[in-house]
Design goal:
CATH topology of the largest domain: Rossmann fold
Number of domains: 2
Largest sheet: 4 strands, parallel
CATH architecture of the largest domain: 3-Layer(aba) Sandwich
CATH superfamily of the largest domain: Alpha/Beta hydrolase fold, catalytic domain
Number of strands: 6
Strand order of the largest sheet: 1-2-5-6
Oligomer: single chain
Shape: globular
Helix content: 40-55%
Radius of gyration: 20 Å
Length: 332
Amino acid sequence: MLPIASAGFHVIAPDRRGHGRTSGWDVSFDDDLDPFGMLNQVRDMLALVSAFGYKSVASAIGHDHGSPIAAWCSVVRPDVFRSVVMMSAPFAGPPALPFDTANVAPADATAAEDHIYEELAALNPPRKYYMKYYATREANDNMWHAPQGVHAFLRAYYHMKSGDWKQNTPFPLKARTASEWAKLPRYYVMDLDKGMAETVAPEMPSAAAIAACKWLPDDELKVYSTEYGRTGFQGGLEGYRLRWISKYAAELQVFSRRTIDVPSLFIAGKSDWGAYQSPGDLEKMQNTACTRMLGAHFVDGAGHWVQQEQPEAVSQLLVQFLHDKAHRGNRP
């Protein structure tokens, strides 16, 4: 935040709905998911801008779950969010409506059923996709009451998805198939019989490695573990559950074929699998979803937590983008 503020910008870093000390709804597996719908998340950001007395902002910047919120802010209200930076999670565009099917028999026009999760379970050893797991009832309890404790769980999780875990050597997958997905690390495509707490436990870094970790000192990690120890993880998991409920995708189809037409940027760690876990999304973002993409940068020495692992490099990219965008004005 400070380098961007020093470059002349007012930086606001809100918690996404369901995280930290956000409030105003009930969080449990059986509660209504409507408050966590994407358009409601965009409204949160719009209301925040308004509450601070602004009619527009220079950019919406988001990492991981914040990346699609930033993207949707620029899709829905480009007049307010005048540029967008997406980190780690590419935005492939709004969900499509069936096209040119008016004279096609309904059975032929129906999308093919997705069997990839059954195919993952049939692998040897059987596997499951982490997003599907995060949508289950047991996910919150597994992490909140992890055998190793929340703090140790988060330490192993952060480590395993960072550039410090040397097994992170990502590459583009050929297709969205079970055999290709099986090439992803276990924190993405898990063993079928394990929760996330058990998945990351064997990769817990040593005491010496923890002491040497400059990008996430233990006292800073304690801020996270204290909050998650108090609240649990369900508020953050609600977003995963929406992915498998058709009405939430349907409400976004009103934006079908809409593109991001404000200046855009993508940043990820060079050791982050996030850009590749959904084959084709990175290319769709660059070639179709964004009409004014100014760059896609993969930062050396960083995994998934790129803005924490390499803050100076990311700050430099962000400030350069914001100045570049300002200099280019409204030119395409």
